[in-house]
Design goal:
Blueprint (H helix, E strand, L loop, with lengths): L4 H29 L4 H34 L8 H8 L3 H19 L2 H6 L1 H7 L1 H16 L21 H11 L15 H12 L9 H29 L17
Helix pairs in contact: 1-2, 1-10, 2-9, 2-10, 4-7, 6-7
Length: 256
């Protein structure tokens, strides 16, 4: 049985109120109470701030994908920008991309003689036939529901770093940008947080941020988590299946 709107709302609010925000509050208390090794603590705090943000982003964005999967009987019924989340992970499509990449690379490295002598093989096993094969498999894929075996968390676009550009890419595809709450989402300091975390995580810097800077980053992360939760909750209420006993209905509409 698919989850209902109430279930998804409860999942978002639990993660926000019982998981992520308490970590930030505990971190604030620790930084305030600790007398010694404050520099080291501030240094360690930055990756924690980013970790809380990425957890919220990944979990809540994946909830949108779960709802989209539940709302569509066939992949073909879903708009292209949403289909792409699942298509990227489809075995036949990944194999096609890898093979095309290999073919292009081999053709680039071939001498003129080899290009001529291997012409017969390229005609029978080259890009044209690969394209025809993937189109046949794509037709079949379109008529089936999205795979329930795939963990939707693995479908979320993160590109290893969830900065403002990554948020925007997912928000455009999912339609989060159409939510009123999205206009209040402040991404102005996210790039700075990601950059600072990467510098510490990859050893490019071991100088901690100052007390004022860290407090500002902590407050910003706290606000960002709350704002992104508001965006997701608005989207869930607009797209998730209604609860049997609440008497309401949901209009499932996605931009194409």
């Amino acid at each position: 049985m698919n989850n209902t709107r109430r279930d998804f709302v409860a999942e978002v609010t639990f993660t926000r109120d019982n998981d992520c925000l308490p970590v930030l509050e505990n971190l604030r208390s620790l930084l305030s109470d600790q007398i010694s090794e404050r520099d080291t603590l501030r240094l360690m705090a930055v990756p924690m701030l980013y970790s809380v943000w990425e957890r919220c982003f990944s979990l809540w964005t994946s909830i949108c994908l779960k709802i989209i999967r539940d709302n569509h009987i066939r992949a073909a019924d879903c708009p292209p920008q949403l289909r792409a989340y699942w298509l990227r992970k489809a075995g036949f499509f990944k194999s096609f991309i890898d093979t095309i990449r290999d073919v292009v690379e081999l053709e680039r490295e071939d001498s003129v003689f080899n290009q001529t002598s291997g012409l017969s093989k390229k005609i029978t096993k080259g890009g044209f036939h690969l394209s025809a094969k993937v189109l046949r498999e794509l037709d079949t894929w379109h008529q089936q529901p999205f795979s329930a075996k795939l963990d939707v968390k693995e479908l979320v676009l993160t590109y290893s770093n969830v900065n403002d550009a990554v948020v925007a890419v997912n928000a455009e595809a999912l339609g989060l940008v159409n939510m009123d709450a999205y206009s209040k989402l402040d991404l102005s300091r996210l790039g700075g947080l990601v950059g600072l975390r990467n510098g510490i995580g990859h050893g490019a810097m071991l100088n901690p941020p100052g007390e004022k800077e860290l407090e500002e980053l902590l407050a910003y992360t706290e606000s960002l988590v709350q704002q992104y939760a508001d965006v997701i909750l608005e989207w869930v209420n607009a797209h998730a299946a209604s609860d049997p006993d609440d008497g309401s209905s949901v209009g499932i509409a996605y931009s194409s």
